[in-house]
Amino acid sequence: MSVVCIEIAYRAGLRVKEIARLHSDNINLEKGVIEVREGSKNGKFRDVSIRTPDIAYFTDLKEEMKGQYICRGVSEDSLNRGIRRVMQDLSLDKKYYATTIHSIRKLYASERMQEEREKGLNERDSWCVVQQNLGHGNKFREELYKIYIK
User: Fold this and answer.
1) How far is it, in rounded angstroms, from Cα 107 to Cα 128?
2) Distance in angstroms (rounded) separating the CA atoms of residues 73 and 116
3) Which of 6, 61, 78, 121 is the right S-S partner for 126, CB 3.0 to 4.6 Å?
4) Domain spans in the chain, listed from the N-terminal domain onward
5) How many other β-carbons are positioned within 10 Å of the β-carbon of residue 66?
6) Stated pTM of the model
C-alpha cells in the first residue's frame, strides 16, 4: 500500500496527512482534480489539478478503490520506511541517503514548475500555480520557492 501512497505524493504533491485521508470520491475526473477536503495543514479545502499524463492512473485508482479511503492510516514514518526499502533495493540508498516523502513532494514541485514554464508562464506565475497545488496559497512566497525549487 505504501507504493500507492508514494505514487500519489509524486503525481499530486499531497502531504502525508492529505494522502492518509484521501477518499476515492475525492478524485473528481470530470473536473480533472483531486479535491483535498481532509488533512490539509491549514484546514482549507483545495483542488489539485490532475496532470494529463496522470489521468489514466487516477481513473484506475478511483475504480479500484471505489467508495474507500485509498491509504487509510498511513504515517510519515511508514512512507519513509517504504522509500528507504525501495532505495536500498535499487542500490541508491548510499547516494541519496536523505530521500523522504518530502523529497517526493519537492520532486513534484520542480516537475510541475517546469511544466508551467513550458506552458508559457513566467517564473513567478509558475511558482504561484505550484504553491497553490502544494497547499501554500496563491500569494508568491519566496522562502518556499527557495526550499522547493532553488
Assistant:
1) 16
2) 33
3) 121
4) 2-148
5) 9
6) 0.84
Residue 138: band (very low, low, confident or very high) from pLDDT cuts 50, 70, 90: low
| Grid cell listed for 149 | 525549487
Kindly give, in sequence order, each residue whose CB lies less than 8 Å from that of residue 105, ignoring residues fewer than 6 positions away: 9, 13, 14, 15, 134, 148
- The order of strands in the sheet holding 33-36 is 27-28, 33-36, 46-49
Among 38, 4, 20, 34, which residue's Cα sits nearest to residue 76? 20
Q: State the Cα–Cα distance between residues 144 and 74, nearest whole angstrom.
A: 26
d(CA 108, CA 54) in angstroms, rounded, equals 12
The CA-to-CA distance between both ends of the chain, in Å, stands at: 32
Tens digits of residue pLDDT in 96-132: 778 888 888 889 999 999 999 999 999 989 988 998 8
How many angstroms separate the CA atoms of 144 and 66, rounded? 35
143: its cell numbers: 522562502
pLDDT tens by residue, 70-106:
998 888 888 888 888 888 888 887 877 788 888 888 8
Q: Give the DSSP H or E segment for 44.
A: none
The domain 2-148 having CATH identifier 1.10.443.10: the answer here is: yes
